[in-house]
Structure formats: C-alpha cells, structure tokens
Design brief:
With 266 residues, the protein is an alpha+beta fold. The protein contains six helices and twelve strands. It has a single domain, classed as Clam (outer membrane lipoprotein receptor (LolB), chain A), CATH 2.50.20. The longest helix is centred in the C-terminal third of the chain and has 16 residues.
C-alpha cells in the first residue's frame, strides 16, 4: 500500500523567492486496488533532489529522487539494502507503452477558496486523459483518466524551490513513482507525472487534492483488459498538507544510509 500511496504524496508543498530546503508533512488516504487506509508522509526537497517517506505501522518506505544523477533509490526500514534505478533508461523503456502525443490535460479555476493549514487556497478542477498499453502491446490498450479538485496556495514559503524541482522532473521525463508499479500501470504513472507538471505550472503548491483514477479498456475484439480493469475498479487518492518548514537539509539525507547493499535494477 505504501508504494501506491507514495504516488499521491508528491502532490503537496509551499512557496518563497529565495532558495530554501523544504520539509513537508502530509496525510494521505488511498482507496481501490486492495487499498483502504490512511498513512502519513514526509517529503524533503533540496535543489534537484527529493526524499519521500511513507509510514505504515512500524515500517517506513523511502524513495530518493536525484534528478541530476538520473537515479532513484528505494528502500525500507526493515532491510539494509536499496534498489537503484537508472531513470533515463527506464523513462525510455516506459515511453514504448504510453502515447504522450495523444494526452489531454487541463487545470481550470472553479471559483472556490478555503482555508487549509492557515493559508488561503484557491480551487481548481483537474482533468487528464492518457492512452496507454500493457508492455507496449497495442492489443492491450487502455485509457487512463484522472479527475478531481485540487486546492493551490500561491506565495507561501518554499514555492519557488518546489516548482523548480517538479518542472525539472517533467523536463527530464521522469516518472515519480516506484518503477515496479509504473511497469504494471504505465498510463497511471505517466498521468501522475503530468498532474505534477500541471500543478507546478499553476504557480503554487497543492495543499489538498482528491483525485479519482479510472482505467478503461479501449473497445476492440479480443482486448483482454476489459474484464480485468472492470474487476479492479477505480482508484482514489487524497492528500492534505499538515505542515511545511524551510531550513537547511544535509546532503546525506538524499542517499541510502552508509553500509546499505545497492541492488541495480532495470
């Protein structure tokens, strides 16, 4: 559950023109595909590096994103080893299963505002549709749609650094989720990345999101995904900002702990 919920925690943060490291704490809820629970998440951002931690019971799942080195590290608190992914190679492989040229995305103001964590947030309605295939097989094609409201705060401490990270990630074509999950649901993973891009282009930080994800098989004789996706049902993720802090973070926070075994993944 922590890996899937980890898709959602990357949607939250804050704002300021001066450079500042960020520490963000969120509440995350997920439903669908066997999920039905809430967890807490902490995100750290320093330049082009981000560390995401999700808590489930006595286990902490950690993902580190190093955009400049094109590396992703994944490990949990129960094992002294980390999986290492070459994200340039992975992004190239994933592109075979996702047609971004046919993607449609919009983020429109809905005229609403509300108070979240002491800030005034402006309401937007998000809608993204993304064609995809399973393992690049055109006979197993689907459409992923992502819809829901999001509440964005502008001009809060840390915004410039938050936007800088996500815009850089979008330019590099990164998928900001566990690559193993992205392989199984490439359209969903790529749609999530587009969501981060849309939020960043809005010029603020999403303090709250409530996203519904639907995957439907394209019509066509013999498409085996129809029944499978119907049984899976829809997925929903909701995130709410709890606190944001700006302050220097150490470099060693953005690498696996010393002595961990590194497992190279493809």
């Amino acid at each position: 559950m922590t890996r899937v919920l980890g898709l959602a925690i990357l949607v939250l943060s804050l704002a300021a023109p001066a450079a500042a490291d960020l520490t963000l704490k969120q509440a995350v809820t997920g439903k669908g595909m066997g999920m039905n629970g809430q967890t807490t998440a902490t995100t750290y951002i320093k330049g082009n590096k981000m560390r995401s931690e999700t808590q489930a019971g006595d286990r902490t799942q950690t993902t580190i994103f190093d955009l400049d080195a094109q590396k992703m590290y994944i490990f949990d608190s129960k094992k002294k080893e980390a999986d290492v992914w070459d994200m340039a190679a992975f992004a190239s492989e994933l592109s075979k299963s996702v047609d971004t040229s046919a993607m449609k995305a919009s983020l429109k103001p809905n005229g609403q505002t509300k108070q979240i964590a002491g800030q005034t947030a402006t309401g937007f309605d998000l809608e993204i549709s993304m064609p995809a295939t399973m393992a690049g097989n055109k006979d197993m094609s689907m459409l992923v749609t992502m819809t829901g409201p999001t509440w964005i705060v502008k001009n809060a401490p840390g915004t410039a650094d938050y936007l800088r990270f996500y815009k850089s990630a979008a330019e590099k074509g990164w998928v900001l989720s566990d690559p193993r999950a992205a392989k199984g649901a490439p359209g969903q993973a790529r749609a999530m990345t587009e969501m981060y891009k849309q939020l960043a282009e809005a010029g603020g930080i999403a303090y709250e999101t409530d996203v519904q994800i639907k995957m439907s098989a394209n019509s066509g004789a013999g498409n085996p995904l129809g029944g499978l996706l119907a049984r899976m049902g829809n997925i929903s993720t909701a995130t709410t900002m709890q606190s944001v802090e700006t302050g220097a973070l150490t470099e060693d926070l953005f690498a696996p702990p010393a002595g961990y075994k590194l497992n190279q993944k493809k």
